[in-house]
Amino acid sequence: MLGLFSRLSLAEDAHVDDTARGFSGVTLAYNVASEIGVDAVVKFAVSCGATVVKAPEKVFWGGYSGYVADPDGHLWEIAHNPFFPFDEHGHLVLPE
User: Are 92 and 32 in contact, with CB atoms under 8 Å apart?
Assistant: First the structure.
């Protein structure tokens, strides 16, 4: 799925300065089935060398997310969106 947001909105969501050196205005998102899953993935990413940019928290749109930067500085949003359910195989089901 491709989600498009303004640079300013994305920076605000990630809690980074939109003029910060290294912020390209692009993030990758990894969606999981629960808030506990977000915490677990963030913890795993940190154990692999990522740094927490925004600790997981409840967000205004009704979900739960956090951001990490991988060792190359790319931002990853780890998110639980209660409006995007998963099927019996663990695949994200997008609304039609």
Answer: no
In the chain, what are the domain boundaries?
A: 7-80
Q: Considering only CA atoms, which of 55, 69, 54 is closest in space to residue 22?
A: 69
Tokens standing for residue 29: 């998102």
Instruction: Show the beta-strand stretches assigned E in 1-96.
Output: 27-31, 51-58, 64-69, 75-80
Radius of gyration (C-alpha) of the chain in whole angstroms: 13
Domain 7-80, architecture per CATH: Roll (3.10)
What pLDDT, on the 0 to 100 scale, is given for residue 2? 60
86: Cβ–Cβ under 8 A, 6 or more apart, which residues? 33, 92, 93
pLDDT tens for each residue of 28-54: 999 999 999 999 999 999 999 999 999
